[in-house]
Automatic annotation (TrEMBL):
Superkingdom classification of source: Archaea
Database matches in Pfam families: DUF8044 (PF26161)
Protein name (record): Uncharacterized protein
Record-linked InterPro entries: DUF8044
Membrane-spanning segments: 29-47, 59-77
Keywords: Membrane, Transmembrane, Transmembrane helix
Amino acid sequence: MRFIRWQLAWMLAAVLVLAALGSFSYELYFVLSLIGLLIVTELTAPFTVTPEWRRRLRWLILFGLVGFAVVVVRRILEILPPEVLPW
């Protein structure tokens, strides 16, 4: 439960900060939530025994990193001029 509370607190803080700065976008919120997931995962990791649910958390992190790669590629394609792209 500690993990879930910290993750929810991080995500709520991310929404509030992005809204206060007037720069909310789903991509930026996704990236900040992924960073929070990685930080909370490391800060709440047990020292001796790894529970079963934490092993499944690796899949969520993997999907998050794939989503992050998609966001980065989309941003790079937006920045590049059209004559550089082969299509």
